[in-house]
Amino acid sequence: MPSITREEVAHLARLARIELSDDELDHLAPQLDQIITLVGQVSQVAADDIPPTSHALPLTNVMRADENVPCLTPEQALSGAPAAEEQRFRVPRILEED
Amino acid sequence: MSDLTRKTAAELAELMTSGQASSVEITQAHLDRIAAVDGDVHAFLHVDTEGALAQAKAVDGKRAAGEQLSPLAGVPLALKDVLTQEGVPTTAGSKILEGWKPPYDSTVVKRLKAAGIVILGKTNMDEFAMGSSTENSAYGTTHNPWDLNRIPGGSGGGSSAAISAYEAPLAIGTDTGGSIRQPGAFTGTVGVKPTYGGTSRYGLIALASSLDTPGPCARTTLDAALLHEAIAGYDPMDSTSINQPVPAVVEAARNGDVAGLRIGVVKELGGEGYQPGVEARFHEAVELLTKLGAEVVEVSCPHFEYALPAYYLILPSEASSNLAKFDAMRYGLRVGDDGTNSAETVTSLSREAGFGAEVKRRIILGTHALSSGYYDAYYGQAQKVRTLIARDFAKAYEQVDVLVSPATPTTAFAIGDRIDDPIAMYKNDLCTIPSNLAGNAAASFPCGLADEDGLPVGFHVMAPVMRDDLLYTVGAALESALAEQWGGVLMTKAPELEVTR
């Protein structure tokens, strides 16, 4: 019994916004199954009373002073855009047609 | 004058200070070397000939005008393609960023420029730093200068290969699970992962934000320390930057005195799965340090065996979230924008076309680990294991000053050997990953060649948080003792590359 099925991988790919081909799914699903078996080893560690660590070092929230500082010009910010129009990012339609 | 590309960064700096060579001459010598050998090595994705010579000329001008210059001013460097440099193509080894020219400098690049260090170009890497061989680069594999049929390590294989091929005396890498240290070990060079937060992540294209650490690559310990000092230190642009003075790394590299230093050999990082030649060189190096006055004991870090599984939950989880920004809207590749497809479809088509297999694997794994119903069992549990690993380190450091192990279980493997076996590939990083999870400083130093294959072996040193200086103490002691035996540093044993131009 695999720990992850082909259908589950297809679902995850949709959630991650990656349009996988059938060939890729065939290839990826068994590999992911192996990897999930490997990473599942973490469950062997008895750690119920252990606090989680999200970061290597203790963190405190950092705020910068609320002051104007130089930033990118609109031309710089748009310089890598796949498409731009009227000094804005042009994007494909975001609503479904009906 | 003897070949400028064979000099160390410290020697080149001295030649410039004494007026025996200019930065333009030194930079041109390295550009010529790149033209001569990079066809075979493929360490570089982009060579910025014009920009490098302009930087070099500017440094020469300042020197002529009697300006006070920093120690590495005028020395050339190779930059891993994961750090932004304004106006210079930056791809992170991915098709999705092909042709992107960042509109700003990363903090590391700002500091390199401020120090007058000349950036020759951008080096090859596994796509978004996911990999241990550069085989996951969208732009072809880098070849190990010691044996062109082998991988140079990864993800920063391009940076380490560049210095190992004498294309640059210095390079910048980034280390998330071993991406500076493992290629350092495989190419007979020095690779240092500073304490997490000791170098700035601003402008580093993020893989796993709680692990990513930029650091120096060089052929000698002193050169690595000089570069470390140039790039390290507090940066208000990075919210996890440590606001403390940079450890005295250059002084440590110059002294290299291990008398009385307590060294712990990690019991769990050896034995089954480790190549005999790797273990032999490692144990000889430990002996040598004992002769130099270090006190060596064996220590146990029982949770290190869970570092690899914990890492392959934490890293993909953070990566899947970080790479969500590649949505084909603001920069990068856009596919399928034909007026009929929705934005969401265009995003999915672009990510399908722009990401390689390993990136897709890890994004999907991370998406799985973060899904509701699995979160506690996977990501939550991995974070607890992270605590246990940090506690193993803390306990060991009550007893010893530094920990040591081989840097990698094996020497460099053949191109193609592990590309379709992700788990074999992941096991490359067994020794290096614990230090990323705990955030401490760690480094690999060359300690000889394995008998089986004549390839370099790396000696791994792990020091407590913000004790990066101790890495250089051990590295310098080992380097000078071994150089005495060999009549030069390990790199002098490297085979000559064929000049193809």
Automatic annotation (TrEMBL), chain A:
Source domain of life: Bacteria
Enzyme's top EC category: ligase
Catalysed reactions listed for this entry: L-glutamyl-tRNA(Gln) + L-glutamine + ATP + H2O = L-glutaminyl-tRNA(Gln) + L-glutamate + ADP + phosphate + H(+); L-aspartyl-tRNA(Asn) + L-glutamine + ATP + H2O = L-asparaginyl-tRNA(Asn) + L-glutamate + ADP + phosphate + 2 H(+)
EC number of this enzyme: 6.3.5.-
GO molecular function: asparaginyl-tRNA synthase (glutamine-hydrolyzing) activity; ATP binding; glutaminyl-tRNA synthase (glutamine-hydrolyzing) activity; transferase activity
Annotated GO biological process: glutaminyl-tRNAGln biosynthesis via transamidation; regulation of translational fidelity; translation
Region annotation Disordered: where it falls in the sequence: 76-98
Annotated InterPro entries: Asp/Glu-ADT_sf_sub_c, GatC
Biased composition (Basic and acidic residues): 85-98
Assigned keywords, A-Z: ATP-binding, Ligase, Nucleotide-binding, Protein biosynthesis, Transferase
Family, per entry: Belongs to the GatC family.
HAMAP family xrefs: GatC
Protein function: Allows the formation of correctly charged Asn-tRNA(Asn) or Gln-tRNA(Gln) through the transamidation of misacylated Asp-tRNA(Asn) or Glu-tRNA(Gln) in organisms which lack either or both of asparaginyl-tRNA or glutaminyl-tRNA synthetases. The reaction takes place in the presence of glutamine and ATP through an activated phospho-Asp-tRNA(Asn) or phospho-Glu-tRNA(Gln).
Known partners and oligomeric status: Heterotrimer of A, B and C subunits.
Protein name: Aspartyl/glutamyl-tRNA(Asn/Gln) amidotransferase subunit C
Organism of origin: Kribbella soli
